[in-house]
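Pipeline run #58 for the internal structure catalog. This entry was flagged by the ingest filter as a single-chain record with no existing model, so it goes straight to prediction. Upstream metadata was stripped on purpose; only the residue string is passed forward. Reviewer on rotation: M.T. Logging verbosity set to normal.
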Amino acid sequence: MAETFGFELVSPEKLLLSVDAEMVTVPGDAGDMGILPGHAPVISSLRLGVIEVTKAGGGEERIFVAGGFAEMSNNKLTVLAEEAMPVADLKRDKLEAKLKDAREDLADAKEDHAKARAQAEIEKFTAMLEAAA
């Protein structure tokens, strides 16, 4: 049996996943990081992207995250995600509609904070569509 380590994915609402993993790839701000058992301690902020989990004994999970932090220590990886959802739950038609709305919000925005919020939503829904492809 392959070596494993503990992996937990937590969102503001709840614990989304708690498994023994053989490997986890996280979308770090400096690039994707592959985490294996015995990985050196590390803390990284996360960008929009997909966490790929290879579970102990086989099976994979793909979860979209919209920012957060990852910490590996004592052979356990914990991801605190600002927002997370399984890639399988991403529906193209709904995401395309939300992206269209965000683009309209950006076009209508008069104040800088409203423009920034709309631009962030555009980036998030674009990344979600890429993950769903």
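catalog note: The first strand starts at residue 5 and ends at 10.
catalog note: The two ends are 33 Å apart (CA to CA).
status: ready for reviewer M.T.
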